[in-house]
Amino acid sequence: MADFEKIIKIPWTILCIIFTELKKIVAWKRMNSKPGISNTFACLNGKTAIITGGNSGIGYTTSLLLASRGCRVIIACRRNAVKERDEIMKQTNNPNVIIKHLDLSKFASVRKFAEEIKAEEPKIDFLINNAGVGHVHQNRTSDDGQDIILQTNSFGHFLLTHLLIDLLKKSDGARIVFLTSFLAYFNCLSFSGLKPWKKVYFGSRLLVYANSKALNTMAAQEMNKKLEKFGIKVFSIDPGVVQTPIFDSLDVPGAEEAFFRRLFGILTNIFSTDSRLAAESILHAISSKTIEGGLNIFRCKPFHKPRNCDNIGFCEDIWNKTERIVGLQPEEKL
């Protein structure tokens, strides 16, 4: 009888997990069609925001939206964004839009950027960890020996937030945002999965992307617990399906890349919404006076988190391993 119970338990557990995640996805689909406009009217004059990847896609729209409310915006990105900066300044009549170089796929670049910010800025009010890549060549790893998708989307932001935490503490009610994705519900996150995969299978790059977004949700959740005593609130934001340049790196030859180009094209046509809706959720998270920290926000409302986020021990272990991966020094830890 005991052996029979063991045989039944494994598939039953898998079915329960699948059913639970499917319910989340159905709920996500319903909310994706709703407007989700923030009901906050806060003036952000005197506030300073850093937006990684603020020169394109959701980041650009967020930069535009915050600048229109008087916020001082620091666009942190890899590419020359003079044209985008000038357009934001022109549309908002806000001259306080600045460009800073930051390559999240290199820990040295993250540290250099943080040192420059600490030398130039008295405080930071909002840190919006938005930048990311969707798909890269299967053999690519970063200069630091990490998977380049995980490092750009997750590890780089994790390190950046730690290095800027003292400036955030100097703000009255600072907010931190990590961008996640509905693909996080399909994650297969594990300790071994934090390293570059030795064997690459069809679709494995997409799974790494899903893992990176699940990591962001966990990071936001755990960071909020550690920082709430300082009055800092941390959120993860699901932007929905938005037509952005994040999958531009698919423009390389190969059957897998061609398949996912077509797949993302279909999904975008079915589910895609304007990037303004994603920016509205970010605005809501950083400016609402009543919102609780630690939430996963979708269409300006709290939404389900991916599986494993409720596993306290697993989240703590992932946090500790991420600290080691990014090379945090004892004095840099929260």
Description:
Helices cover 47% and strands 11% of the residues. It contains 10 helices and 8 strands. It has helices at residues 2-32, 57-68, 82-92, 107-120, 148-163, 165-169, 204-227, 255-271, 275-287, 312-326, and strands at residues 48-52, 72-77, 97-101, 126-129, 175-179, 233-238, 296-298, 301-302.
Helix-strand layout with pairing:
Layout: H1 2-32, E1 48-52, H2 57-68, E2 72-77, H3 82-92, E3 97-101, H4 107-120, E4 126-129, H5 148-163, H6 165-169, E5 175-179, H7 204-227, E6 233-238, H8 255-271, H9 275-287, E7 296-298, E8 301-302, H10 312-326
Parallel strand pairs: 1-2, 1-4, 2-3, 4-5, 5-6, 6-7
Antiparallel strand pairs: 7-8
Helix pairs in contact: 2-3, 2-9, 4-5, 5-7, 5-10, 7-10
List keywords for this structure.
single chain; alpha/beta; 10 helices; 8 strands
Strand content: 5-15%
For the largest beta-sheet, the strand count, sense and barrel status come to: 8 strands, mixed
Taken from the alpha-carbon principal axes, the silhouette is globular
The N- to C-terminal Cα distance equals: 49 Å
Which strand order does the major sheet show?
3-2-1-4-5-6-7-8
Fraction in helix: 40-55%
What is the radius of gyration?
Answer: 20 Å
The number of helical segments is 10
User: What is the residue-mean pLDDT, rounded to a whole number?
Assistant: 84
